[in-house]
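Risk register update: the risk that structure generation would not scale has been downgraded. Supporting records follow, first protein first.
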Amino acid sequence: MVDVGVLGATGMVGQRFIELLDKHPEFEVKVLTASPRSEGKPYEEAAKWYLQSKMPESVKDIKVVRTDPSKVGDVDILFSALPPDIAAKVEPKFAEKYVVASNASAMRMEPDVPLVIPEVNPDFLDLIEVQQRERGWDGFIVTNPNCTTIALTLTLKPIHDQYTIKRVYVATMQAVSGAGYNGVPSMAIIDNIVPYIGGEEEKIETETLHLLGELEEGKVTPAQFGISASCHRVPVLDGHTEAVFIELEEEFEIDDIKRIMDEFQGIPQKLELPSAPEKPIIVREDEDRPQPRLDRDESNGMAVTVGRLRMDAAFENSLRYVLVGHNTIRGAAGASILNAELINEIIF
């Protein structure tokens, strides 16, 4: 078993890490960190459990330590659920010694830090060698993208592999859990839609092109198509919904798009990694699916469900569809764990 820890273990994403790591076949949680006010407390006392599942028995008695490299001891991988401002300061300190699989946004676009979706760009892990050499670290940082970016990019990858994408437009309807337990006041979201999520549109537009780009000689050249995003917070607990519009250079048949999405697999499926869904993309023919409440938990929350796949008659060589992905599982904790499983398989 690989000994692991969770940085920022008391927050919602930290709790997802703990939930998903409970009874994991390869990883065993040994260390939990949080703010100084939680230091020294058993996790059961330090954390108010927000998830529908019960707090795992295996972590209840673990004493929480401060988020400091000198406090975590002998572990192999640290999963980071830290807020971006804290992550920017402390993740590099941890990476001097430890492997950090981060869900935080702070280091994502650093040129020597791999931003990875294992089914999409596993070769970007080659940047680890560059990172360690240039920074003099014994450990390293690997990041996963923004939650909306992950779901979108997974569905774009098989299309990008077979066709030339000219433009992508996406309108998101994002669950409140994406903002954390205290992120959106109830009076602001009940009976309402908020048409703004700070920094979200920029993340989607930048990260998607980066992920679908090319790594050559230690540098990433982003994909060259246009992308425009509009992001909205909606009164849904979990599961981001995205309406996607794509213009291609070539003619295509919609049945071919459905087929390549349905058949799409990546290295996690070939290696049969523990958290990998058998099908990363699930294509539904129902005219009223996907829906977050019905489809977010597909494949333990690790698959993205696509529906309403159809031609867009308003523009030449265009299609549109709707997707749903679980934002705190595939879009956050589950993504970091899958990255770590791949690292454990091919690097350790």
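Supporting record for the second protein:
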Amino acid sequence: MRHDYVTGFFALIGTFMIVYILLPLVVIVGKQLFDWEMLMRTLHDELVLIALRNSLLTSTATMLISLFFGVPLGYILARKDFKGKSFVQAVVDVPIVIPHSVVGIMLLVTFSNRILDSYLGIIMAMLFVSAPFTINAARDGFLAVDEKLEHVARTLGASKLRAFFTISLPMAMSSILSGAIMTWARAISEVGAILIIAYYPKTAQILVMEYFNNYGLRASRPISVILVLLSLSIFVILRWLVGRSRNA
């Protein structure tokens, strides 16, 4: 057999990105293991535990809200052609290109003190920057479902809503769940907008910055490691569940 030099060359180049992403993760976790006392002290810090809880709750709430509002919009973008559709799609993608500190200022100017230093403000900041992942994933999932299947269900007496819930939604579910996972991940990683809108109640992302600015790298590193490992664990579990759903 002839050697596939192109594939080997591409794999070699692509390995750089894998190593580049993996190396900082391995280094920070490895260094923290040599500072076990600081890690244990951080795990018993009530402020850290509350901040982690706040991050998990707000990112999960953001994901659920984006599913409730984003999936119907994704369906419309996949199934209907209408005047201004390209504009709507552009609006959906806008949060991806706006600097997140600017997002915080925009939301604060728009909603003022009603969202300042509140869980609502945190969720609104997270939702703004992460919702496009759910909407676009839902749109792509519905595009992959043959619309003729819905028409067949309608001819057999199903209503349009029933056809959506029994045909389109289940078949697009794996894509929707993948988008939801990315939404959750993007929400829990948001810092810039939250820093401007809601320094309190404290989230883990903000607490890392506070500890770094006030106490230095050694104090902020354990929180970073805990947040990384927690986020990666949940992300991997959710990905595994989506994979099982897709295979089923």
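The chain is about 85% helix and 0% strand. On this basis the risk owner (M.S.) recommends closing the item.
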